[in-house]
Design brief:
The protein is α/β, with parallel strands linked by helices. The protein has helices at about 15-25, 50-55, 60, 65-70, 130-145, 155-165, 180-185, 185-200, 295-310, 375-395; strands at about 5-10, 30-35, 75-80, 85, 90-95, 100, 105-110, 110-115, 125, 145-150, 170-175, 205, 210-215, 220-225, 230, 235-240, 240-245, 260, 265-270, 270-275, 280-285, 290, 320-325, 330-335, 340-350, 355-360, 365-370. The chain is about 25% helix and about 30% strand. The model has no long low-confidence stretch (mean pLDDT about 95).
């Protein structure tokens, strides 16, 4: 394979920036372009729901790299100009302003777009949290509010609820699950999360789907549940998940199905790759397609894509990993734990809230989750690695 003379990365995200950096580290010296829809230089998203929202970090700390470092990449960085189309045959990206950017290799790193509730756009005080501007707008509203309702019982919703409670607001967390993160972790971890949030004063109204919002004079006043109950709030945060930002690829001829569909090399078509939250690729060891929404994946996948652009033939076979910080709990997960798995405590103790849980399905280790035991959790990661190796050997 001939090394490309130019690479265009669409998405000034952590995954997009990591792709540029990895290409340069691997010796690529030709033309690099980074195209972003926001006007901000690449920044880190995990702190948005915690340090940025709470005000404990200034904006510079959220930026992934200082301008001095970015200049060493010798890349053209085009910001504030969203991609609106892709001609896959010529690898030409068209932008909102009318630019037509062509490259020998195109990397799609456009991430996610948050889901919204009906009528959300018509009411002030209703927020999503995906971008830096979202975090700043939400923080400004929270500082002037007294009651907030968080709609969504996943990682983001639970983190926002914890941060808002730390700011002194009355917080209600609602969602369809019986406990936060129940579908990911099962009853043990989810039950402890219930205890944690209640101990810190979060009002939980879970197991009740949301039907809509209430408002007065163009401002939100609360959240209406399916049973007619209204949860009052001066501010509402909608954290109901997000969808891959692939609308701009609709006429590209590429396969889009819960992300940009790729092979095991993260390649969607000849000369076109995907990284980060938007990429749905085939995991050779697991024998299935995956799309991972976490910060670690952004960097690891970018390294593989950069290598493959430069002529390698590397499958991307990570051990999935993510973490969440809520109040005084740091929770880390390796593998793919699930609510239906058999669980056992393998380090520490639940009563001390310092422990590691092993998840098994059909006798095989599928994941480990640690609560305030980072070192021990990392050590247990090898059990997941070994289980994947056994799976490959058996096929």
């Amino acid at each position: 394979m001939t090394e490309p003379a130019s690479v265009l990365v669409v998405g000034a995200s952590a995954a997009g920036l990591a792709t540029l950096e990895s290409l340069r580290r691997k010796g690529f010296r030709a033309t690099l372009t980074l195209l972003g829809d926001e006007r901000h230089l690449p920044y880190d998203r995990p702190p948005l729901s915690k340090q940025v929202l709470s005000g404990s970090w200034d904006l510079d700390r959220a930026q992934l790299r200082p301008q001095t470092h970015l200049s060493t990449l010798d890349a053209e960085i085009v910001l504030g100009d969203p991609a609106v189309g892709l001609d896959a045959a010529t690898r030409t990206v068209h932008t909102e302003s009318g630019r037509a950017l062509r490259a020998d290799a195109v990397v799609v790193a456009t991430g996610l777009r948050p889901r919204m509730l009906p009528g959300q756009a018509e009411l002030a005080g209703v927020h999503v949290l995906r971008t830096l501007d979202d975090a700043l707008a939400l923080r400004a509203d929270l500082l002037a509010a007294s009651r907030v309702v968080v709609v969504g019982d996943g990682v983001l919703g639970a983190e926002v609820a914890a941060t808002a409670r730390g700011l002194g607001l009355a917080v209600t967390l609602t969602g369809p699950q019986p406990a936060p993160l129940a579908s990911q972790f099962g009853p043990l971890i989810a039950g402890l999360l219930v205890e944690l949030h209640v101990e810190h004063g979060v009002h939980l109204r879970l197991g009740a789907p949301v039907s809509g919002l209430t408002g007065r004079h163009g401002r939100v006043t609360g959240v209406r549940l399916d049973n007619g109950e209204v949860l009052p709030g001066d501010v509402v945060v909608v954290a109901l998940g997000a969808d891959p930002a692939t609308d701009w690829l609709a006429d590209s001829g590429l396969q889009v199905d819960n992300g940009l569909v790729c092979d095991s090399r993260c390649r969607a078509a000849e000369g076109i790759y995907a990284v980060g939250d938007v990429a749905r690729w085939h995991h050779d060891q697991l024998g299935t397609s995956l799309r991972l929404e976490n910060r670690t994946n952004a960097t690891e996948q970018a390294n593989t894509v950069a290598a493959n652009i430069l002529g390698a033939d590397q499958p991307y076979t990570p051990v999935p990993y993510f973490w969440t910080d809520q109040f005084d709990a740091k929770i880390q997960a390796y593998g793919m734990p699930g609510a239906d798995a058999e669980v056992s405590i393998v380090d520490g103790g639940v009563a001390d809230r310092r422990f590691v849980v092993r998840y098994r399905r059909a006798g095989a280790v599928i994941g480990v989750v640690g609560w305030n035991m980072p070192k021990q959790t990392r050590m247990r990661r090898q059990e997941v690695v070994d289980a994947l190796a056994d799976l490959v050997a058996a096929t």
